[in-house]
Design goal:
The protein is an alpha/beta fold. The chain is 36% helix and 18% strand.
Length: 544
C-alpha cells in the first residue's frame, strides 16, 4: 500500500560559489517546513548547493572540499521521516572527476545519488567541459511510491533514457537550471504535458530562479498529473516554496488543492527577466546603487524606469550630460522623468571638456576633414564623466544601449558603451518601444514625448538615427532574420527586402564584432544573445 508523502518544492535562488550562504538558506527552508507527523520530500533545483554554473570553480580542490563538507553537514539536518533531493557537484575520491548530480538524503545520510546523463553543450551551456556523463537511471521508493529522478536536459531526452526502470512510476522528478528565453516557458509546459500523459506518471518540474551574470532563470516550476493536466505553476522570477499535502500516488486524486496560476505574457516576462537579472547582478556582487546617463531618449528612459522598479530612490542617480547639440526638449524630458519618479539627478555640461579635447587634437588633426571622430569625442567625454562618478560613489554604471545598435555598431567604444551592466542588451529597438509602452500602461514612468519623438544621438545638428539606419521596424526584421534565425543574404532578400540594404546591414553586423566583444554583460533574452550564446570570430572573411 502506498503511503502519504508531502512534496515541498523549493524554487530557489542560489548564489554561485556562496556554498555557506546557500547551505544556510536550504537548512532554513527545511526547518520552516518540518512536520514530525508526516513524510516530507524536499526538492531543490539543479546545482542548488553551489549555484549554476560555477564554471571553472569546479576544477578547484578547495571548492570541491567545501562542497563535500556541506553535503555532510546538510545530511545531518535530515531526519528519518524526511527526504531531501538536491542538486550539487559529486566528486571522485581524488577530485579528478566531477558529476552533475542529485543527492538523495534521508535519516542523516546520503542514501542514493543520480548523475546527469545528457550534458548540454550548446548556447550558454558548456557542461562537457566540466562533468562526467552519468550512466544509469535512478528510481527510489518512498512510502511505497516509486519515484524516478532526472536532471534538466535528461528530461528533454526521456525517450532515449526510458527503460523498464521507469515502468509504473508514480512520480518523475526533474530538477533544473533552465535559463529564461522568450517563449520557453510555454514550450516547457507543452512538452512535459505530453510526456506525463504518454508515460502515465505524475511529473514534478523544479527550476532554479534568479540572475547569474548574463543568464536569468525564471523558475516557473510546475506539476503535471498523469492525464497531462498542469495543476500548479509557481510564480515566475520569484523564490517560492510550494507545499503539496498528503499525496498518495496520484495528483488527480486531490482536486481540492488550491493551485496557483502564473501564465505570463511576453512583455511581463521580458520586463521581469530584465529586473531580476539586473538586480541579482548588482546585489550578488555585493554592490549597491546605480547611475546612468539620461539623454531624453527612449533607451535611457526605459533603463531608468527599470532601475526605479528595482532599487530605492536614494540608490539611483541620473546624470544629464548636454552638449551644444543637445536640444532643450531632451533636457526637459530627462528632467521631467526624474521629477516624476522622484529620482536624484545631476546636470553636467560636456561642452568645456569637448572643446578642450578638440583643441588638444587641433594640430594633430590639421588638414583632416571633420567626421564621426569629433562626434565620438562627445560620447567619450560622457563616458569619462560617468565612469568617474561611478568610481567616486561606488555606484554601478548601467549601460543603456540596445541590441539593434549593438548589432550594427551604432555606439561608441569607451563612450556610450561604458558601464558595468547593460539591462537592454538583448532587446531590439522595436522591443524597447513596445516594452516602454507596456510599462506606461501600468503607471506613467516614461514621458509620452520620449516615446513619440524621433530617435537621435544628438552628436551634430539635426541628426537622426534614420539618417544612418533604415527605420527600426525594417532594421530589426533584417537583424532578427540574420541573427536569431541564421538566414542567409538570399533568404532575407526573398522576404522582400532590397539586396543592397540587406548587404549593408549584414556587413555592419560582421564589421562590429570587435565592439561587441568589449561590451558590458547584460540580460540574456534570446537564444542568440550576444556574449555567451552567439560566438563568432572577430576576424573572418566568410561571405554571408
Amino acid at each position: 500500500m502506498k503511503g502519504k508523502i508531502e512534496f515541498i518544492i523549493a524554487q530557489f535562488n542560489a548564489i554561485v560559489g556562496d556554498i555557506d550562504g546557500n547551505l544556510k538558506k536550504i537548512i532554513d527552508i527545511i526547518d520552516n517546513n518540518r512536520d514530525l507527523n508526516a513524510t516530507k520530500v524536499f526538492i531543490f533545483p539543479e546545482l542548488a548547493l553551489c549555484g549554476y554554473s560555477p564554471e571553472d570553480l569546479l576544477f578547484r580542490k578547495d571548492f570541491a572540499k567545501k562542497v563535500n563538507n556541506s553535503i555532510l553537514e546538510l545530511s545531518q539536518q535530515i531526519n528519518s521521516n524526511e527526504y531531501l533531493i538536491i542538486g550539487g557537484p559529486r566528486y571522485s575520491d581524488d577530485y579528478s572527476k566531477v558529476w552533475n548530480s542529485a543527492f538523495i538524503i534521508n535519516n542523516k545520510k546520503v542514501i542514493e545519488t543520480y548523475d546527469k546523463q545528457f550534458l548540454p553543450n550548446y548556447g550558454v551551456f558548456d557542461e562537457k567541459r566540466y562533468f562526467e556523463k552519468g550512466k544509469k537511471n535512478k528510481v527510489i521508493e518512498i512510502e511505497g511510491n516509486k519515484i524516478g529522478l532526472l536532471i534538466c536536459e535528461d528530461s528533454w531526452n526521456l525517450s532515449s533514457l526510458y527503460n523498464n526502470d521507469f515502468n509504473d512510476l508514480d512520480f518523475l522528478i526533474s530538477i533544473n537550471a533552465s535559463p529564461f528565453e522568450k517563449g520557453k516557458d510555454e514550450k516547457r509546459r507543452r512538452y512535459f504535458n505530453k510526456i506525463a500523459s504518454k508515460y502515465n506518471f505524475n511529473f514534478i518540474y523544479v527550476n532554479t530562479v534568479g540572475g547569474q551574470d548574463e543568464i536569468v532563470f525564471d523558475g516557473s516550476s510546475f506539476i503535471v498529473d498523469k492525464k497531462g493536466k498542469i495543476i500548479n505553476i509557481c510564480t515566475s522570477f520569484s523564490e517560492e516554496i510550494f507545499n503539496l499535502f498528503s499525496i498518495e500516488g496520484n495528483f488527480s486524486d486531490k482536486p481540492s488543492f488550491n493551485y496557483s496560476k502564473n501564465i505570463i505574457n511576453d512583455e511581463n516576462a521580458l520586463y521581469n527577466a530584465i529586473k531580476i537579472g539586473t538586480y541579482d547582478y548588482i546585489s550578488k556582487s555585493n554592490l549597491s546603487g546605480v547611475i546612468l546617463g539620461l539623454s531624453g531618449g527612449i533607451d535611457s528612459a526605459l533603463t531608468l524606469a527599470i532601475a526605479n522598479d528595482i532599487f530605492k530612490k536614494e540608490e539611483i542617480e541620473a546624470i544629464l550630460l548636454p552638449s551644444i547639440y543637445t536640444s532643450d526638449l531632451s533636457i526637459q524630458l530627462a528632467e521631467q522623468q526624474c521629477k516624476n519618479l522622484n529620482i536624484n539627478y545631476s546636470l553636467i555640461s560636456i561642452e568645456d571638456i569637448n572643446e578642450t579635447v578638440n583643441k588638444t587634437l587641433e594640430k594633430r588633426f590639421n588638414g583632416l576633414q571633420s567626421d564621426v571622430t569629433e562626434e565620438n569625442i562627445q560620447s567619450r567625454a560622457r563616458g569619462l564623466i560617468l565612469m568617474s562618478i561611478s568610481n567616486k560613489t561606488g555606484k554601478v554604471l548601467l549601460t543603456t544601449g540596445n541590441k539593434s545598435e549593438l548589432a550594427v555598431g551604432y555606439s561608441t567604444l569607451y563612450g556610450d558603451m561604458c558601464g558595468s551592466f547593460a539591462p537592454l542588451k538583448d532587446l531590439y529597438k522595436t522591443e524597447v518601444y513596445r516594452l516602454s509602452k507596456w510599462r506606461n500602461q501600468k503607471s506613467l514612468v516614461i514621458p509620452e514625448a520620449v516615446i513619440e519623438r524621433m530617435p537621435t544621438a544628438e552628436l551634430s545638428y539635426d541628426q537622426y538615427d534614420i539618417d544612418t539606419l533604415p527605420p527600426y521596424e525594417t532594421l530589426d526584421a533584417i537583424l532578427n532574420s540574420f541573427i536569431e534565425d541564421k538566414k542567409s543574404l538570399e533568404d532575407i532578400c526573398n522576404m522582400g527586402f532590397e539586396k543592397n540594404l540587406v548587404t549593408k546591414i549584414i556587413n555592419m553586423v560582421i564589421k562590429n564584432e570587435y565592439k561587441r566583444r568589449q561590451y558590458s554583460p547584460g540580460v540574456k533574452l534570446n537564444p542568440e544573445s550576444f556574449g555567451r550564446d552567439r560566438r563568432f570570430p572577430i576576424v573572418s572573411r566568410f561571405k554571408y
